[in-house]
Amino acid sequence: MFLCSSFVFAESDKSFSNPALEHRESKIEISSSDRLDNELPRYETLSGGKKVNAHFYKAELSDVLRTLANWSKLSVILSPKIYGTVTMRIRNIPVKTAFYSLVRAHDLYILKKDGLIKVITRKEYAAYLRAKKVHSQVFRTRFIPAERFYKVVRQLLTPEIGRAVFDERTSQVVVTDLPERIAHIKELLQKTDIRNDTIRVQAQIIEIDYSDESEVGAFYKMVDMKSHRTMVDARFASNRAIITQTSGGLKIQAVIDDVPFPNVNTPKSIELGLSALGIDGEAITVSSPSLYVEENAVGTLMVGQEIPYPVAQASNFGIVETKFEFVKAGMILKLRPRVENKFSDNPLIHLDLEIENSSAEFIRFSDSETSKAPQKSMSKARLSVRCFSGQSV
Length: 393
Fold this sequence. Notes:
By secondary structure, the protein is α+β, with helices and mostly antiparallel strands.
């Protein structure tokens, strides 16, 4: 944890269900291949067998699969939803490998049970996985926002099978998917749901009362040395001086520019001086809040009020309902900290600050209560500062 003080004045379905519409043909070379990007996970594979040579030209896909199954001495059941044609040439390829490669090339899937091999479409396979393989798990985050985790999880779900639900009330994410995908999501959560570095910010909100006058200025007098006649007697004052806080009290600084000085060539005597500093106002510490902000997150301090105003009215069964919104006004400080040299003895802290001093009042456009509109007047400053842990800025 780092400490920084702040002194402030004043946030497709590819199953071929219609042969007329989905008739296709393909040319493939049988070879080992990686899993396709949109492929569903495959739990059954085939390989090996005697090497064969064959050439098929615009043959029905189901006929080619049956031929290769006979050569492999496999007991195969083909889904009636498998359609299409295929053109392919096999050269010295193990027959089971050729069979399985053809299945994958057409986005088909196999299931093995009791010595039988069933070849089915993607849609049928997805339905099988949903019924037999999927299960659900509840995830709860500790440090990262649950909604942000939910948005990431949605991109990791198995196509056509996985589902995620975000419960706003409990801030939980319920994931339903295949076991290996849920394990992957769990591993991801363990790696990312960690506490960021936290910076403790101690702030002071100060109100300065300028109700009394303060005179800060300069004067000079010019006298002719021969006649002893006063040639110029001028005073220049600033009624409001810059006030800063120092240990033990207040310090007032005044800058007075463009003081006229006559171009007099005669010998002269000049008397210069600075008027006494004086102020009868006072500086009051309104609040000294502390807040903990994660690195690169935005923290907000507010000393002020939220003013409600009606925006709409509706009448249902004789009951008048009024909708309100709120406008925030007062002293609002937003800050975003980040840390350099975290592992050094004296880390450097960057603070991006946005300071708002605002007030709000209402303007009535008509006699209707819902015609009031808030008008917010404000001054805003943005700056970036750097300090070491424990320093004030």
